[in-house]
Amino acid sequence: MLRWARAWRLPRRGLGPSSPSFSRVPVAPSSSQGGTEPRPVPLSYRLLDGEATRPPLVFLHGLFGCKTNFNSIAKALAQQTGRRPELVERLIAVDISPVESPSSLNFPNYIAAIRAIDIPDEASLSSARKLVDEKLSCVIQSISMRQFLLTNLVEVDGRFTWRVNLDALAQHLDKILNFPPRPETYSGPALFLLGGNSQFVLPSHHPEIRRLFPRAQMQTVPNASHWVHSDCPQDFMAAVRDFLA
Fold it and tell me: For the AB hydrolase-1 domain, which residue ranges apply (predicted)?
């Protein structure tokens, strides 16, 4: 998902268009549950500078993703174009909908399969990736899905580990895949950009999308899977530019 926001208070530090920055900043407190106090959540982000007078474009990655997923797209859009509801001027949701995710996505099986893999310490990165790919192929037939999950395999202090917190994901996956009912709506412009070959947004989701986002536009990118920006980057950037213009 990405948002065109009216206000995004991050340090600009006088960076040039091709000078990314890595930092961690506190963001808005998470919602309290069970009577516990809200607490700040550290946000790891990469900043590509643009015109200080223009609203920033904010990319938010999804489940199993990280901030590097949109590197190429973000750089290209920064060159080409130069969170509360009241802060968001317009919104783009990329192949996701505000309803509970379909059970057919099999995410619990993906996590279980990943956690069951034992990688020898002496393995090289290439052999580790090959081993994981072979193990996951029994559960995940999609090559692109396996390649995406493999981006989370990293080496730390001579041992292979997973960038994502698998224990936390397994414990809270039902909450992550759910979308709680909300009576309020977002009245700003919204674009739902869908992958033509994806099953993440179903026709049965459209009524709830239009209820929550009365000004929503639906646009489908043919021949794209869930990773629209990766499968069809030019079509993705053209849709974003047209919507933000």
Answer: 56-238
Nearest-angstrom CA–CA distance, 4 and 22: 21
Q: What is the biggest distance separating any 2 CA atoms in the chain, rounded to whole angstroms?
A: 55
Length of the chain: 245
Cα–Cα distance between 41 and 32 in angstroms, integer? 12
The residues pairing with 239 across neighbouring beta strands, listed in sequence order, are: none
Euclidean distance between CA atoms 74 and 70, whole angstroms: 6
CB atoms within 10 A of CB 236: 24
CA distance linking residue 126 with residue 158, whole number of Å: 14
In the chain, the amino acid numbered 161 is T
Mind listing the pLDDT tens digit for each residue in 96-114? 999 988 766 788 888 999 9
Closest listed residue to residue 94, CA positions, set 173, 187, 195: 195
Among 94, 78, 50, which Cα is nearest to 232's?
A: 94
Give 3-state DSSP helix, strand, coil % of the chain, rounded to 5: 35, 20, 45
